Recover the amino acids of this structure.
């Protein structure tokens, strides 16, 4: 099949830097204002008040976080707000040493999927872990650490991170 | 939680459809060609490979991923003349990385519907146009309100999935790294490969820098530019055009919820659903015996294994051991990614999946040269994946 | 049951702001490289010809879009052309008024089957007519970069009817 492979022109980074190839640049400057919507609007309000909230489906009975106004599995409207705990279980985690544009981080960030107590099993949210080294494990029990009320703005970052739960805190 | 017990209609088309030609560009880190020129390079070679002209093409299917990568709004319309679409019915599909196989499926149903006899399918990606890094577009896949404020990195999703998979089954990085080694070595025999390396070792992979544990640099496929094209025909035409049409026997596609943090990341249910649909259509009841070559999607080494299990070719948690034991080598019981995959040939997002379909085409015709799998394989499959760990697209082909 | 939700108080409407931080870097391409270098180095305008379809492409292309042939017949063309259509632009991308209105035109280059979109200058809008002969005005060679902006604008051909 070699004769059906076209020899595309391979450029090196230096070809751009040294002006050996012509190119144009454009910054679309794409900025957005996304409506929070009914479900996430309430989620953000609750975060500002230092609480996590979910939503339940009348048919499959799942209690879902992040909350949503319709259940995507049953395809019907969800019907109740369900207050949740701010503790949970680590379903999976990572230690990330680079930014998205491949710059080395001094201290790794630790993203995790955390199953939230009070929601249905497996209902996780993405967040960060802190105060964990060493001893970070899947299955670890964790507690949300909230920013002080005056620093909260109605954002997922009103929780600074989750840290391991002391056995006495269970 | 999702998809279990999903019943497929068991429908199939009466119109037999075959792949009759294929062409591609070299996969390069940054191409001088514009996206249109890349498309034409692959598309015209695909036509040449079966001695057809643009006049013989009834419709065009274009597969290309985010407009943001090439930085062109309405990218498919922009690419269309390079894809042979001038004055023809043209459609574009896009399901992230799943596009490469999905475009072949779209080509299939254009012909299977009876509406068109011969379709040109072209997949293209020029990621090098997206600065400072394609992640600038990719990272918007995270929810803008509930996830992006955490300043995520696309690598997180893979690292989180890889960790969940490893933890669930007690897997070792050493076994998983054998996939990267196999594919990069296989790619040394692929004329279009970007990262073929006949000498790479498992230790090279395990010693590469940690990006987002457990993901290390050599576990990941590169940013790439490239294009691939196929010619797909109805049986009446296929038999006139070539002595070795490769029949499309089954297709399947399935999408899971975008709420990825609510899912079991250790198993790709949506790949299983897509595979069931394709196997049903192809009449496959024992995939492990009836599939002779597999090209699952391998943007990361662990994903090849994750997908092999979703394709039901290995039991859950068992694919890594099989890989480490050599079962998936070209001369093994079930050759997997004999092309060299994304890890070895490269990963221009939409084109990568179609490269896999082209590989099955060439392998089943005995035209894969140094990569040829021994034993006259009769049936193979290609699978792609994309979005937020969401879509499975599967195609089963046979002689 | 309807899912439409009415906001009773303006302060209840929440939106989350963010961006997509991409920038585009576009190579001129295989054909474009040759086209723009010729303008930059020698002020020449080049086209490619498909001999089978009898089409002279402007801007020049690597392939014919009608028959898919590889085009390697390059010719120099006289860059004179005529106004096929034009408009006067008063606002920028953010809908702010431009310091002064600009005239944008599609100029068909007479020796080709194509043309270029560019500005018109040295003419008032009320004097422009469709079919008006125009010629390009290039930047001085030292200022040219191998870009469409190496052409400053098109202006009416003086002495034309």
């Amino acid at each position: 099949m070699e004769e059906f492979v076209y020899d595309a022109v391979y450029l090196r980074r230096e070809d751009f830097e040294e002006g050996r190839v012509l190119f144009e640049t454009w910054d679309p400057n794409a900025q957005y204002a996304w409506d929070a919507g009914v479900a996430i609007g309430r989620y953000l309000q609750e975060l500002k008040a230092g609480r996590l909230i979910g939503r339940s489906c009348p048919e499959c009975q799942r209690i879902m976080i992040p909350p949503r106004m319709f259940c995507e599995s049953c395809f019907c409207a969800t019907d109740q707000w369900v207050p949740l705990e701010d503790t949970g279980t680590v379903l999976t985690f990572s230690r990330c040493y680079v930014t998205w544009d491949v710059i080395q981080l001094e201290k790794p960030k630790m993203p995790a999927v955390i199953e939230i107590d009070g929601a249905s099993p497996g209902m996780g949210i993405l967040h960060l872990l802190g105060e964990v080294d060493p001893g970070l494990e899947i299955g670890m029990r964790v507690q949300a650490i909230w920013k002080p009320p005056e620093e909260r703005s109605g954002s997922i970052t009103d929780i600074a991170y989750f840290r391991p739960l002391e056995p006495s805190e269970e | 939680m999702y998809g279990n017990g999903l019943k497929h209609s068991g429908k199939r088309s009466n119109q037999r459809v075959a792949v009759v030609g294929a062409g591609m560009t070299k996969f390069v880190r940054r191409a001088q060609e514009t996206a249109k020129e890349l498309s034409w390079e692959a598309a015209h070679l695909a036509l040449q490979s079966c001695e057809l002209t643009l006049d013989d093409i009834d419709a065009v299917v274009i597969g290309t991923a985010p407009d943001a990568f090439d930085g062109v709004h309405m990218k498919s319309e922009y690419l269309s003349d390079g894809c042979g679409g001038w004055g023809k019915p043209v459609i574009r599909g896009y399901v992230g990385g799943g596009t490469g196989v999905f475009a072949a499926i779209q080509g299939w149903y254009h012909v299977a519907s009876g509406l068109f006899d011969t379709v040109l399918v072209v997949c293209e990606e020029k990621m090098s146009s997206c600065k400072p890094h394609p992640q600038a577009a990719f990272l918007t896949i995270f929810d803008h309100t509930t996830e992006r404020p955490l300043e995520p990195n696309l690598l997180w999703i893979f690292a989180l999935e890889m960790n969940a998979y490893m933890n669930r089954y007690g897997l070792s990085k050493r076994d998983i790294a054998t996939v990267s080694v196999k594919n990069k070595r296989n790619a040394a025999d692929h004329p279009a490969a970007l990262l073929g390396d006949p000498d790479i070792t498992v230790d090279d992979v395990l010693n590469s820098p940690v990006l987002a544990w457990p993901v290390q640099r050599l576990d990941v496929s590169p940013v790439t530019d490239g294009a691939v094209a196929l010619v797909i025909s109805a049986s009446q035409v296929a038999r006139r055009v070539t002595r070795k049409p490769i029949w499309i026997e089954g297709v399947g596609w399935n999408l899971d919820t975008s709420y990825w943090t609510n899912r079991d990341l250790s198993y790709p249910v949506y790949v299983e659903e897509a595979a069931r649909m394709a196997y049903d259509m192809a009449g496959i009841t024992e995939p492990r015996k009836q599939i002779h070559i597999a090209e699952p999607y391998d943007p990361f080494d662990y994903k090849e294994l994750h997908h092999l299990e979703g394709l039901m070719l290995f039991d859950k948690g068992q694919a890594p051991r099989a890989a480490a034991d050599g079962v998936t080598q070209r001369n093994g019981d079930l050759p997997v990614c004999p092309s060299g995959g994304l890890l070895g040939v490269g990963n221009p997002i939409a084109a990568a999946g179609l490269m896999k379909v082209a590989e099955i085409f060439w392998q089943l015709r005995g035209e894969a040269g140094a990569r040829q799998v021994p034993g006259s394989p009769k049936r193979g499959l290609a699978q792609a994946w994309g979005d937020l760990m969401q879509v499975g697209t599967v195609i089963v082909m046979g002689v | 049951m309807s899912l439409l939700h009415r906001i009773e108080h303006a302060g209840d409407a929440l939106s989350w702001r963010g961006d997509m931080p991409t920038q585009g870097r576009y190579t001129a391409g295989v054909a474009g490289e040759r086209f723009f270098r010729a303008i930059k180095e020698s002020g020449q305008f080049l086209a490619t010809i498909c001999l089978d379809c009898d089409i002279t492409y402007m801007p020049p292309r690597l392939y014919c879009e009608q028959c898919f042939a590889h085009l390697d017949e390059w010719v120099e063309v006289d860059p004179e052309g005529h106004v096929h259509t034009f408009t006067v632009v008063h606002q920028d991308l953010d809908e702010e008024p431009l310091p002064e209105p600009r005239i944008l035109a599609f100029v068909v280059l007479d020796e080709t089957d194509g043309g270029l979109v560019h500005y018109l200058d040295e003419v008032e809008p009320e004097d422009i007519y469709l079919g008006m002969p125009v010629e390009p005005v290039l930047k001085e060679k030292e200022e040219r970069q191998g870009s469409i902006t190496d052409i400053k604008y098109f202006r009416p051909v003086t002495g034309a009817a």
Residues 64 and 129 of chain C are 31 Å apart (CA to CA).
